[in-house]
Design brief:
By secondary structure, this protein is an alpha/beta fold. The strands form four sheets. The chain has a six-stranded parallel sheet, with helices on both faces. Strands 11-10-9-12-13-14 form a six-stranded parallel sheet, sandwiched between helices. A six-stranded parallel sheet has the order 16-15-17-18-20-19, with helices on both faces. β2, α2 and β3 form a beta-alpha-beta unit. α1 crosses α2. The chain is globular and about 75 Å long. It starts with a strand and ends in a 23-residue tail after the last strand.
Length: about 575
């Protein structure tokens, strides 16, 4: 029996096991929403802005490993998800995003709310297509879920014209599709892997660099086993944090622009760098000519295009991280790395990662209290200084997840992503860590959180500034704080050099703002009040709690490497 495209759309979602869809209605998707209204198996989450919507789907996907699903209307609805598509593209998050489109006969006529969203997003999606024939709808949706979730995960966009949604056609939804030209790697070249193992085995100063690919492949346990059997120390990228427990004796810390001193020194001094699941972006490498200058480099990655793109490597291995590590673990044998570990420990003692404790409440203290109060939580960060402090000081173990925007660095990501994570994991503590700037970029999603009963604990580190840019202005631009003070008003002097008694009050009042949405608000100014604030937040199961931490404007993220400089040139104080 033939059915409408809109009925097949809902049937496809049910067949794919979709339990949640983040959607915002509009003229070209009203038929799809009407069909969703008639079923009870899929939860429809109505956000307050399409950018918030797609970040919520990202949080859902990152916290579950399942495909996040979006539905938005044509025109501005579609263009509003472009930032999220780019974010998911760079961080390898599996999304299937459906956009409405004007009827086929109007495409190309500059119709109301018509945009070529497929063309606009071609470089930031894994696959994108406009459905032009009703008989192709089921196959294309099946392809979308398959492409988004296999190989190197990523976002897929399916544009569905309004007339395709109402046209009759086959009710069959395929169980499998063969996609011409799409053959994600599902094996590992044993010869290349043996070369990699031989190189690592012969190293005197070996080092494992674990990237976000470890977390995506769920290879954390096998990486830990391999590192232990080989007795090789581990550093991580920001996206790779949690690849092995941060308390593990072989774990040194994050490397890169704001990495630990000992971690960056280890990369600079190692003789074999065994890298897996990282694309070597500039925040990790700094000056490419000075990156790991003494090392032969092994690079294991599922994406062929990522290998030797930024850093030319000695042994390339195209493979899923888990698959490669499982084979390597079979061959693993303990190495004598005592002197190498002692050298790393000396660097750690020379410049430990530590903030002063004699100047009041610091970001490090806040992170330590989060560790103590939410040991099994999902941590979601926004982008900025607070993100770096979180990646430096939060402890990660097998029961934790960290969700952050790494490749695109999207301010406004954190809060909606935490809502998506909480919707997906209602019985797990979800802690959002944000700055006062990033929080205001998608603050309207507080209404979404309240209406969905997503009781996220939101930690706002308020320093009155767009802190990461302010830090660069302080260090490299002669303290010319251009457009970074969030208290600044038109009446302020043009050449202000920082906070002074004449500064106007900060806006908004986050505590009152939370209460106006039907959420809860607490302000904390002293370390001794942190635990009580978290205890109060845990009592609130029906809505988010904002805890506004008032921190010093002068706090900066250290160590720091100036962009483009070698990672050995760290600013330490």
């Amino acid at each position: 029996m033939d059915i409408t495209g809109r009925k097949l759309f809902v049937k496809a979602l049910e067949e794919e096991g979709v339990d949640t869809i983040f959607g915002y209605p509009g003229g070209t998707v009203t038929d799809l929403f009407d069909e969703l209204y008639k079923q009870d198996s899929i939860r429809v989450v109505l956000p307050r802005h399409e950018q918030g919507l797609i970040h919520e789907a990202e949080g859902y996907a990152k916290s579950t490993g399942k495909v996040g699903v979006c539905l938005v209307t044509s025109g501005p609805g579609a263009t509003n998800i472009m930032t999220g598509l780019a974010d998911a593209h760079y961080d390898n998050i599996p999304l299937v995003c459906f956009t409405g489109q004007v009827p086929l006969n109007l495409i190309g006529n500059d119709a109301f709310q018509e945009v070529d969203i497929v063309g606009m997003t071609r470089s930031i999606t894994k696959y994108g297509v406009t459905v032009r024939r009703r008989e192709d709808l089921g196959r294309i949706i099946k392809m979308a879920f398959q492409i988004a979730s296999t190989g190197k995960p990523g976002p897929v966009l399916i544009d569905i014209p309004k007339d395709i949604q109402t046209e009759l056609g086959s009710s069959v939804y395929p169980a499998h599709v063969d996609i011409r030209g799409y053959k994600p790697n599902a094996s590992v070249h044993i010869g290349q892997l043996k070369k990699a193992f031989k190189l690592l085995k012969g190293a005197k100063k070996p080092l494992i660099l674990a990237g976000g690919g470890i977390n995506i492949a769920k290879a954390n346990d096998v990486l830990q086993t391999f590192a232990e059997r080989m007795n090789v120390p581990v550093v991580t990228t920001i996206m790779g944090k949690g690849a092995i427990p941060t308390t593990h004796e072989l774990y040194i810390g994050n490397c890169g622009m704001h990495g630990k001193y000992a971690a960056n020194k280890a990369v600079s001094e190692c003789d074999v760098l065994f890298s897996i699941g990282t694309r070597f972006n500039d925040r990790i490498t700094g000056d490419l000519n000075e990156f790991a200058p003494k090392a032969q480099i092994i690079h294991i990655d599922i994406d062929t295009a990522s290998i030797s793109r930024n850093v030319v490597v000695d042994v390339p291995v195209v493979s899923d991280a888990r698959l490669a590590l499982e084979k390597l673990t079979e061959w693993a044998e303990s190495k004598k790395t005592k002197h190498w570990m002692e050298e790393i420990a000396a660097w750690e003692a020379e410049n430990p990662l530590e903030m002063r404790r004699d100047k009041g409440m610091t970001p490090q203290m806040i992170m330590e209290h989060i560790n103590a109060n939410y040991p099994d939580g999902i941590y979601v960060t926004d982008v900025g200084q607070h993100q770096m402090w979180a990646t430096q000081y939060l402890e990660m173990g097998p029961k934790n997840k960290m969700i952050t925007s790494g490749g695109l660095g999207t301010m406004g990501f954190g809060f909606p992503a935490s809502i998506g994570a909480k919707i997906a994991n209602p019985d797990t503590d979800v802690v959002c860590i944000s700055g006062d700037g990033g929080m205001q970029m998608n603050i309207q999603e507080m209404a979404t959180a309240v209406t969905q009963g997503a009781a996220v604990t939101v930690c706002i580190l308020n320093n009155y500034y767009l802190g990461m840019v302010r830090q660069m202005q302080q260090l490299f631009y002669g303290k010319r704080y251009s457009a970074t003070c969030l208290r600044r008003r038109i009446t302020c002097p043009s050449d202000c050099k920082g906070p002074n008694p004449a500064c106007p009050p900060y806006t908004p009042d986050f505590v009152k703002l939370a209460e106006s949405y039907g959420a809860y608000g607490i302000r904390v100014e002293r370390e001794e009040d942190i635990d009580a604030a978290f205890a109060e937040a845990k009592k609130h199961k029906d809505a988010p709690t904002i805890i506004e931490f008032m921190i010093s404007t002068d706090e900066i993220v250290l160590p720091m490497v100036k962009g483009g400089n070698p990672m050995s040139e760290m600013i330490l104080k």
